[in-house]
Specification:
Oligomer: single chain
Structural class: mainly alpha
Largest sheet: none
Number of helices: 13
Distance between the termini: 87 Å
Number of domains: 2
Number of strands: 0
Shape: elongated
Length: 315
């Protein structure tokens, strides 16, 4: 029985390792291998190994420890699987999985083993070392995920920069309509926000547009809010929220823009209420990382320029 369990463990480890290599190289089938390996590990190998160890030990007093050990393995590996696969509620699963060994497994382990006079203290030290390593690797994993997310966001910014360059090459249409005046007003605020944020980071607009990715604290949250905070306003981004609302209302009143008025909130990423009942524009600057706040402004600017470029000429 032991030999079969060892073979099963080796097979699951090989499958997971293969999936990790495929994922690092961005080759096909990576997610299938990782999911299959972790499922075999959690649903077959761990139960078989723990049941075999429990029967061999023959100590019923340690039953709770074996049960909690399996639950911990299930929660931790399931959380990692959700995060790696980018499945829904992955953040929630990982938030539960990371502290679970410390708030559930460790107390049970210490209570059960303290009642066993023959228990070797070195086993306790070994478990504590494993938990410490789990903390280190979990932190590194989280940092790597954040870094990859931020790096991907820079590609979005580069695409927006290309779109703005392409729009600038279109023939200039002189249009003094109320819609275009409102768009110019929003663009002015967007540019002011960008300049304030980049100035705080010691960058120029040209440096950001030519090489997104040279921010020194791209993952920091609330930095953009500090840069654009209006001491006389209730929240960062109030001017932008008001200008966007006025622009969308103007779309609804202007002939030829009726259909755009309905789609504008989605196109301009505008909402009256964001997460937690807070205005959506506030969340873009307070809750999102610095790089995302700048990219939100880049995208907003690109979309406004394209709307302006496609506006009908006014006689």
């Amino acid at each position: 029985m032991k030999q079969k369990i060892y073979i099963l463990g080796v097979i699951s480890a090989i499958i997971i390792s293969t999936g990790v290599i495929l994922k690092v190289e961005h080759w096909p089938m990576a997610q299938i291998f990782i999911a299959a390996g972790i499922l075999i590990l959690v649903l077959i190998f761990f139960p078989a190994a723990l049941i075999n160890s429990y029967k061999a030990e023959g100590n019923k007093q340690n039953r709770l420890l074996y049960i909690v050990t399996y639950i911990t393995c299930f929660v931790v590996f399931t959380g990692l699987l959700f995060k790696i696969q980018h499945w829904p509620y992955a953040g929630v699963a990982l938030s539960i999985a990371l502290p679970f060994p410390y708030i559930v497994f460790l107390p049970v382990f210490l209570i059960v083993t303290s009642k066993n006079k023959n228990f070797n203290i070195y086993n306790t030290v070994f478990v504590l070392i494993l938990l410490a390593l789990n903390s280190v690797f979990s932190a590194l994993f989280s940092l790597n995920v954040s870094k990859e997310t931020v790096d991907d966001s820079y590609n979005i910014s580069r695409d927006y920069s290309k779109a703005k360059v392409a729009v600038a090459q279109l023939p200039l249409i002189v249009n003094g309509s109320a819609v275009n005046l409102k768009i110019d007003g929003v663009l002015k605020i967007v540019n002011e926000y960008q300049d304030k944020i980049l100035k705080q980071e010691g960058l120029s607009r040209e440096q950001w547009n030519s090489n997104p990715g040279n921010l020194w604290r791209p993952e920091a949250r609330g930095v953009a809010a500090d840069a654009i905070l209006n001491p006389n306003g209730p929240f960062p981004g109030e001017e932008l929220k008001t200008a966007l609302k006025d622009l969308i209302l103007e779309f609804g009143k202007s002939p030829g823009y009726e259909s755009l008025a309905k789609a504008a909130p989605l196109i301009l990423d505008y909402s009256e209420d964001g997460y937690g009942g807070e205005p959506g524009t506030q969340n873009d600057f307070t809750l999102n990382p610095l790089s995302w706040a700048l990219i939100y402004l880049d995208g907003l600017e690109a979309n406004l320029l394209m709307i302006k470029a496609s506006a009908p000429a006014v006689n």
